[in-house]
Design a protein that fits this description.
Elements lengths: L4 E4 L8 H11 L3 E4 L18 H14 L2 E10 L9 H9 L4 E6 L4 H16 L4 E5 L9 H11 L4 E6 H7 L4 H4 L6 E6 L10 H10 L11 H5 L7 E3 L4 H7 L1 H18 L4
Parallel strand pairs: 1-2, 1-8, 2-3, 3-4, 4-5, 5-6, 6-7, 7-8
């Protein structure tokens, strides 16, 4: 199977979806992973395609011009008080653009609530032919592999999946062998990046690296190949935000370096 790569929006967050798509095509990606669900984070642009007809039209044109596909949309967070129907417009966008997956994460400690809402999210996505892939995040409430597995087993939805981010997996200190025991049908895509091997003890530093200082694959301290060897061959969405690299090279060259270093690394450490 030919390796396939997607450009994740966080890697080039200053680029609107149409520009991002052209950059991804020029750099040699197969897919784009868009962020049409506005989260209101500091400095985050609003790429709500459902509410911006012109940007949606331009994004469609960019996908058609380049031949790239939409892999997934993000981020359908589960948080206190959420009505999952709030994500319906973004799911409609994903379906219209030919997307396959919806990325989700959990930000409330109320297990009964998040199990119920994640299940509702899966039911809503199913009508659009989309999977919902749960990402455990070190600063979220569901922060490790066991927590994510608990959710998937509890909801027992056929379109539910688990999304492994190599940064997050390393930070969670999980055992890579545990991945091999999970159902293969749970894995639809993965996030690829590297980071310093030493795990920050301060939350602010964890957040800083997570959001703006990840490393090119092979230039950090994460055993990326060991993680990937335990999951099926899936498309790799390169989520590699690095403000310094963007400032030095610009978005287009940063995106190119992201995929080139990933390919070089995976060639050097082929799957066992």
């Amino acid at each position: 199977m030919k390796r396939q790569f997607s450009l994740a929006h966080l890697t080039v967050l200053g680029c609107a979806p149409p520009e991002m798509t052209y950059i991804a095509a020029m750099a040699g990606y197969d897919y784009v992973s868009l962020r049409p669900i506005y989260m209101g984070l500091p400095g985050e642009p609003n790429y709500d395609l459902a509410g911006n007809n012109e940007m949606m039209k331009q994004t469609k044109r960019a996908l058609a011009d380049t031949g790239l596909k939409l892999l997934d949309i993000e981020l359908a967070r589960i948080y206190d008080g959420l009505d999952p129907k709030r994500y319906l417009p973004a799911m409609e966008v994903a379906a219209e653009l030919g997307g396959k997956h919806v990325l989700s994460s959990i930000w409330t400690p109320n297990r009964n609530f998040y199990i119920e809402k994640f299940g509702e999210l899966c039911d809503l996505a199913k009508s659009f032919g989309l999977t919902v892939d749960l990402e455990f995040v070190p600063i979220a409430e569901v922060f490790d592999l066991a927590g994510a597995v608990d959710v998937l087993r509890a909801v027992n939805c056929e379109n539910a999946g688990i999304m492994i981010d190599t940064h997050h997996f390393h930070r969670s200190k999980d055992n890579v062998e545990d991945l091999n025991a999970l159902p293969r049908q749970w894995f639809h895509f993965a996030h690829l990046c590297d980071a310093p091997g030493e795990i920050p003890t301060e939350r602010d530093e964890m957040i800083r690296i997570l959001r703006e200082a990840r490393s090119y694959v092979g230039e950090g301290g994460i055993d990326v190949a060991r993680i990937l060897n335990q999951i099926p061959e899936v498309p790799y969405s390169i989520e590699l935000p690095n403000l310094e690299k963007v400032k030095e090279f610009g978005y287009a060259e940063h995106a190119r370096r992201c995929i080139q270093t990933a390919k070089d690394y995976l060639d050097a450490y082929p799957r066992e």
